[in-house]
């Protein structure tokens, strides 16, 4: 069986390195009979898209298939690394050790290459820093990206701003979401036993563990449905805002995370409607347009706006 596995690896390498190689040439490379090669090709057809180009033209891979990168999962890599310790080395044919070393070297090289790619991406992304930057502030973007791509749980110390407390927790990192000049991590918190959103700049320590996780049927689109930016709620608020002609065309080119309903009025103004599960971030967005934005609905928010304006007036009296 081991002989056959090694032979299959040799055949894959040979077909990739020499597209159009014939069965006779494969037999010579693998030091076996041509009829054995034909039997092995039927097996290879189950795991790789090998095709015969026609009489006398030999074998090649269909499309852009390639053996590399190996792209082993951590579990697959661990199982393969244990292989020499669970088989009888005296029964292994010549060439097994060198073939095994080549496979593992390729895996490690690919793993190192992926790490370099993540590092380059991390360096290319310019993140903002807290206005008051402590000397201990660190950028954990690299560690978190690595954990997301390898499906590894992180052990983190996180500062919760609302309670002004730091807690140690295990988090399964699902998605990294950019919002308003900062990054947020969405993942499963083992402490809360629920999906939570974490602001990246509030992590005080991050360590990637050896624990693996699965996202299951989690859907990021469903999770952020009716969410204006990142702050989620349980409400169902239908906002209707009128934007003046001066600002209407700029509103249309806003890049939003929800899909609003927009309607042009004869005077050039714009009616903007959207249903959200939380109000704060949306209201802050509307406030920036000052008198060029008028909240029409809900009426309770018109009253809130009046109170807000009165409070501002009192400040500047």
From TrEMBL:
Residues 142-208 form the WYL domain. Residues 236-312 form the WCX domain. PROSITE patterns: WYL. It comes from the Bacteria. InterPro entries: CBASS_pafABC_assoc_protein, PafC-like, WCX_dom, WH-like_DNA-bd_sf, WYL_dom. This is WYL domain-containing protein. It comes from Paenibacillus planticolens. The lineage of its organism: Bacteria, Bacillati, Bacillota, Bacilli, Bacillales.
């Amino acid at each position: 069986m081991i002989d056959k596995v090694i032979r299959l690896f040799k055949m894959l390498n040979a077909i990739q390195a020499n597209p159009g190689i014939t069965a006779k040439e494969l037999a010579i490379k693998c030091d076996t009979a041509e009829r054995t090669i034909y039997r092995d090709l039927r097996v290879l057809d189950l795991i790789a898209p090998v095709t015969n180009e026609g009489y006398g033209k030999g074998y090649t891979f269909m499309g852009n298939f390639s053996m590399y990168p190996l792209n082993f999962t951590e579990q697959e890599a661990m199982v393969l690394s244990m292989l020499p310790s669970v088989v009888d080395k005296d029964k292994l044919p010549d060439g097994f050790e060198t073939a095994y070393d080549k496979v593992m070297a390729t895996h490690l090289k690919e793993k190192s290459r992926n790490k370099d790619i993540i590092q380059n991406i991390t360096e290319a992304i310019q993140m903002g820093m807290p206005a008051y930057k402590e000397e201990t502030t660190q950028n954990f973007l690299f560690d978190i990206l690595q954990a997301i791509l390898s499906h590894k749980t992180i052990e983190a110390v996180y500062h919760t701003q609302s309670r002004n407390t730091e807690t140690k927790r295990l988090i399964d990192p699902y998605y990294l979401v950019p919002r308003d000049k900062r990054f947020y991590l969405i993942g499963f918190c083992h402490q809360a036993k629920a999906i939570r959103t974490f602001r990246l700049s509030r992590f005080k320590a991050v360590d990637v563990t050896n624990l693996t996780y699965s996202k299951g049927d989690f859907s990021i689109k469903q999770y952020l449905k009716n969410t204006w930016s990142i702050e989620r709620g349980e409400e169902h608020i239908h906002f209707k805002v009128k934007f003046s002609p001066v600002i209407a065309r700029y509103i249309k080119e806003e890049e939003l995370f929800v899909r609003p309903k927009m309607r042009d009025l004869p005077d050039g103004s714009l009616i903007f409607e959207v249903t959200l599960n939380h109000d704060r971030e949306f209201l802050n967005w509307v406030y920036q347009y000052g008198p060029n934005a008028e909240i029409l609905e809900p009426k309770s928010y018109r009253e809130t706006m009046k109170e807000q304006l009165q409070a501002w007036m009192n400040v500047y009296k």
